[in-house]
Each structure stands twice: as structure tokens, then as C-alpha cells.
Amino acid sequence: MSAPTRRQERIDDLLDLARARRGGYLRDLEELVSLDSGSHSADGVNRVADWVERRLERLGFTVERVRLPSTPDGDRTGDALVGRRRGGLPESAGGRRILLAGHMDTVFEDGTAAARPFRVDGSRAYGPGVSDDKGGLLAGLTALEILGELGVDAYDELVLLATPDEEIGSPASRSLIEQTAAGAHFGLGLECARENGDLVIARKGVADFRLTVTGRAAHAGIEPERGANAALAAAHLTVALQALNGHWDDVTVNVGVVRAGTRANIVCPRAELRIEVRAATTADIRRVTRAIREAAGRPGVPGVTVEVERLDLCPPMEDTPASRRMFDHVRHVARAVGIGLGAAATGGVGDANLIAGTGIPVLDGLGPVGGADHTPQEWLDVASVPQRVALLADLIASLGKAGTT
């Protein structure tokens, strides 16, 4: 029997198994969506973690439950989960370690699940977190389930990481994400696909800066010439920094916060700017950082100095040849089941950025099709579930052995 025929048989088997689980998937999704799990609701997130942990254990995974440190703001998050299942092909024989990543938190407050309960209307399911990311996380669990049923174990290790704080930038789980990604060969993000069905091949990185502008106070009416106006320098800097937009493709610079002065009759001695930079590549983030520092060296007001601090950096998930190979593989399988796929780049960030920052190729948006995330209209296309689960399962199976994609 030829390899293409065996491959098509596997795809057909995976699709049949995924279709058979559609009803169970919806029942499970209703159960998950009915659990409030806002990022700041540690108890709610932990109820989701309890559910996911039980499912992983039934699938033969060894599960580590990680109590995370408080965020830099002192908030407690829910626990993270790291599930691992060894395969039958060790790395020394060409087996690969595959990391699947989804998140358990939502943007919604406690009480939202009762006020806006799960429902299915036609081909769409609605409810808080139905798409972002409970539908995607559940798709990953379902894909692992059908692979186990088929006896697919030609991989070194499968790892599923479920985080509790993605919606607030993963401040508590970042170190765990990076540690878990270390040593993996591929990363698969379980966020749902774009509204048009596209997968996500790239996500911009984000760098946050604080500029502290120091001038010199003086009486504004009697001796203003003795002062150095930090507010005026901040205004010059705002204009200069906003003018950086358009200098590089896929780069945005936003002066989002400007604070200056305390009283109108004092020449302003201090000001602060908060800046967000988004860029598709690490090289562009470095270029913008240099440009910000150069602008800070020319504040436009004599006697004023500017200190530049980078407060945070979420690395970009870059469009790389390795991630393109993964995408080309999925697109080929999608054609076999009647789906056309595109590759999208987005300015939004997620845990996939942190995984990509460790140097491994990542493909995201591998959950079912969904949309209107973070709104009361959030939806999931339930008709897309079997095909997307089968696609994800086949991708995992294909990546498990060196040289198969």
C-alpha cells in the first residue's frame, strides 16, 4: 500500500472519530463555558483546571499542577497544568517533542456564565470563552483522545500546557511557559482559527517603554526663564515618537499615556510618557528601541533630560520557514477534507509569542473557527469542530517523527 493511501486512510479515520465525538464535544464545551474563569478569579480558573486535569489523566498523561507566584501587581492567579505523555519513538530514533498550548482564563467577570449561559443557535455556539479559548483547549484534548484511540504513538513526547493568565499577558505563567517550551521541537497554539478559517502564522511582539522627563521647576509668573519645562519636552517627544509610524513595515508606535505637572503656575519639572511598540520581528523592535533612545536624546527643551526604560517585552511570533512548512502540511490535509486555509498575521499577542521566543517553530489558531472574542457576541462554529480536530490530530501525528513534514 502506498504512503499517500495510508495517509489518506489515517485522515479519514481521524475525521470519522472527530465527527463521532461532536455531540460529546458540545456537552463538554457547555460544561466548561458554564464555569466562570476570569483571569482574576483564581478559584474559577482552578475549577477549569480540575476539569482539564481529570481529562488529561484519563488520556494517560502525567499531570503536574503548578501553583504560580503572584503577579507583579500582587494578584493571585489560578494554577497552571503541564500534562506529558511519552510516545513509542524516542528522540534518539527520530521522535519529536510536541507542545500544545491553550489557556483556561477568560476576560469575563464572575456571574457572566449565569447571565449569558451557553447556547447553540443554528451552527454557532455562544457563551463567555466559547471561542477564546475553551473551544480551542477542548479541541486539543479531543485531538489527543482520537490519536490515542488510533494507537498513534510515533513521537517522543506530547506536552499540553494550560495556563491561567493569558488574557492579562501571562505575568505569572511566563517563566513556566518558557521552561516548558525549552527542548520542544514544535509548538501548536490552540487559540481558535480566525473568523474566515485562517490559521495564525505570525503575531507581532510588544515592547512597553516608560520615558521619564526631568526638567526644572520655576515660578511661572516671576521667573519662568529659570525653569526647564518637562511638559513641553514631553509634547515634542510625543510628536517625534508618533512620527516613527510608517518608517518600517508592520511596526506601530503609540504614545498612550502622557502625565505632566501639578499646578499651572509652576514650570513643569517632571513628565512621564508610556509607549507601546508592536513589531513583526525582533530586529524591528531593536530598530524602534534605538529610535526611541535617539529621540530621548533630543528633547527639544534646554535643561531637560530623559530616561528611557523598557518595562516589558513580549517577543514576536515570527513567520519562519519552519512554521511555513507546518502550515503547508496542514493546508494539504485541509484540501483532503474540503477546507481552504490561509495564513494570517495578527497584531494581537498570546502565549504562542512566548513559545516562539524560545526559538521553536509555532503555528497558532489550530482550534475551531470562532469570532467576536471578548464581547457578549463571542461565537464558535460548531460545524467546523470535526474537521479542525482531525486536522490538528493529523498534524500532531505527522510532526511526531523527524522528516515527515
From TrEMBL:
<keyword id="KW-0378">Hydrolase</keyword>
<keyword id="KW-0862">Zinc</keyword>
<dbReference type="InterPro" id="IPR011650">
    <property type="entry name" value="Peptidase_M20_dimer"/>
</dbReference>
<keyword id="KW-0479">Metal-binding</keyword>
<dbReference type="InterPro" id="IPR036264">
    <property type="entry name" value="Bact_exopeptidase_dim_dom"/>
</dbReference>
<dbReference type="InterPro" id="IPR001261">
    <property type="entry name" value="ArgE/DapE_CS"/>
</dbReference>
<dbReference type="Pfam" id="PF07687">
    <property type="entry name" value="M20_dimer"/>
</dbReference>
<feature type="region of interest" description="Disordered">
    <location>
        <begin position="70"/>
        <end position="89"/>
    </location>
</feature>
<dbReference type="InterPro" id="IPR002933">
    <property type="entry name" value="Peptidase_M20"/>
</dbReference>
<dbReference type="InterPro" id="IPR017150">
    <property type="entry name" value="Pept_M20_glutamate_carboxypep"/>
</dbReference>
<feature type="domain" description="Peptidase M20 dimerisation">
    <location>
        <begin position="201"/>
        <end position="300"/>
    </location>
</feature>
<dbReference type="Pfam" id="PF01546">
    <property type="entry name" value="Peptidase_M20"/>
</dbReference>
<protein>
    <submittedName>
        <fullName>M20 family metallopeptidase</fullName>
    </submittedName>
</protein>
<dbReference type="InterPro" id="IPR050072">
    <property type="entry name" value="Peptidase_M20A"/>
</dbReference>
